[in-house]
Amino acid sequence: MPKKAYERELKALQAQLVDMQAWVQSTGARVVVIFEGRDAAGKGSTISRVSQYLNPRVARVVALPTPTEREKSQWYFQRYVAHLPAAGEIVLMDRSWYNRAGVEHVMGYCTNMEYHRFLHQAPIFERMLVEDGILLLKYWFSVSDIEQEKRFRSRNEDPMRRWKLSPNDVLSITKWEDYSRAKDTMFVHTDIPEARWFEVDNEDKRRGRINMIHHLLSQIPYTPVERDPIEIPPRPASGGYERPPRELQNYVPDYAAEVIAHGA
């Protein structure tokens, strides 16, 4: 997708996301958006574009670390329940309870019994959320094996993004078909009428982001919210306050001046 067209449409969609956020706040709606998919499929960068202009007190990103030993002894969905939204909140889940149907199953981090229990319980759990009024949206980000490897190599060569690459990510190259089978099975069991899976072709990240955000907005029944205008009052006359001498304050050194001088 051409960069100019992408940037123009992205800004327009992000403005609509702000409108949607206002509706969520005013109506007390609860929204959960799940981002799942292949490693290096572009979930994180899409979440960044979705949340870029949203109020972090309203829309928060949930990306849970590896469960602790205590959490491993809990009901599997228990630690996720604590992060569900209250009224007027949006939760963007950077991976979710579907870890069990993907990486945990493929890498052998859960037992076969735990895996099949998840496939049975996940639809029940999600129906409970939807019946309680939560707006639940699930997105799967797809990318080809060739593009995935290309992104892995790009990350590995970029010290600013190398942290995104883990040993498990690299193993997904050798386990491509295992992950494909796991995804297919997951869809069979959890693509339910109450909470459908929506697949995002993210081979072209710009196109994928635009498509995903546009679809997200189409799934939330928001309407424009009239906002009361805010008047900025005139600044009153000075009451005699005098600022302490500048040399008594601990200012951050003016490093920018050095940058400018060297660049001149």
Verbal overview:
Helix 1 packs parallel to helix 10 and helix 2 packs across helix 10. The protein has a five-stranded parallel sheet, sandwiched between helices. The mean pLDDT is 93. By secondary structure, it is an alpha/beta fold.
Please outline what is shown here.
By secondary structure, this protein is α/β, with parallel strands linked by helices.
Helices and strands in order, then pairings?
Layout lengths: L2 H25 L2 E8 L5 H9 L7 E4 L6 H4 L5 H4 L7 E6 L8 H5 L4 H20 L3 E8 L2 H13 L9 H8 L1 H15 L6 E5 L3 H15 L35 H9 L1
Parallel strand pairs: 1-3, 1-4, 2-3, 4-5
Multimerization status: single chain
Rg estimate, integer Å: 23 Å
Average pLDDT, all residues: 93
* Helix-strand string: HEHEHHEHHEHHHEHH
Report the sheet with the most strands, covering strand number, pairing sense and barrel closure: 5 strands, parallel
Could you tell me how far the N terminus lies from the C terminus, measured between alpha carbons in angstroms?
36 Å
Q: Give unreliable regions as ranges.
A: none
**Strand order in the sheet with the most strands:** 2-3-1-4-5
Give the tally of β-strands: 5
Task: Give the class from helix and strand content and strand pairing.
Answer: alpha/beta
> How would you describe the shape?
globular
Helix content: 40-55%
What's the helix count?
11
Query: Beta-strand percentage?
Result: 5-15%
Characteristics:
globular, five-stranded parallel β-sheet, 48% helix, 264 residues, single chain
